[in-house]
């Protein structure tokens, strides 16, 4: 299993999606990738045409003050929705550059840019984007997501030494962030701190994380603590959740 990465949110107004490192097999209610309804003028911006963004936003052709950053951010998010991650990285960087004094929008853009790089497995670029986000503000509403995403990217890039520190910081910033607790538990388990890892996984579950992965990771930690009966129960919960998801998928189709 792997730690989890996620797209940031702005207090529920712009929900994004979390995914496990091995594909998109879960949705977390506060973080789904479905963007708000786009209000972009289709005569000016086609969300699936990367050339239009370049033409419209080139500073040689338009005054930055005339750019509607919120609408541009929606366009960038639409690239994520249709898995056009390369175009998304370019669009999010333009949002950040055009944001001016709006650090909140710029930080959101940098975090999402990192997530897009992550989908492309461009971990160095993802790490750079998350660090740019944290340079703007290490104590904002987006900082917890930036830290937990950075922890994931560092782990994927083989830079594991600092991953736990960022996972810990994410929990400090937002103790009701289940994804942060999951990542904290994962990295604690990797270091052999299994009692603390189990507590972290329990917090993630209490805060609403209902995925097979969190129960499986808890089972692994419990096994290493010699708590075999509890480990079996946790693994059974993971199996039940997976079977339930498969049954729902069959019914849907």
Main structural class: mainly alpha
User: What value does the Rg take, in angstroms?
Assistant: 19 Å
Report how far apart the termini are. 28 Å
CATH fold-type name: Serine Threonine Protein Phosphatase 5, Tetratricopeptide repeat
H/I helix tally: 11
The chain-level mean pLDDT equals 81
Q: Helicity range of the residues?
A: 55-70%
Architecture overview:
The chain has helices at 50-57, 69-81, 85-98, 103-119, 123-136, 143-156, 163-173, 178-190, 194-206, 212-224, 228-252, and strands at 4-6, 18-20. It has 253 residues and is mostly helical. It has a two-stranded antiparallel ribbon. It is globular, with a radius of gyration of 19 Å. The two termini are 28 Å apart. Mean pLDDT is 81; it is low at 5-40.
Note the main attributes of this structure.
2% strand; globular; Serine Threonine Protein Phosphatase 5, Tetratricopeptide repeat; mainly alpha; 253 residues
Topology:
Layout: E1 4-6, E2 18-20, H1 50-57, H2 69-81, H3 85-98, H4 103-119, H5 123-136, H6 143-156, H7 163-173, H8 178-190, H9 194-206, H10 212-224, H11 228-252
Helix pairs in contact: 2-3, 2-4, 3-4, 4-5, 4-6, 5-6, 6-7, 7-8, 8-9, 8-10, 9-10, 10-11
In brief:
With 253 residues, the chain is an all-alpha fold.
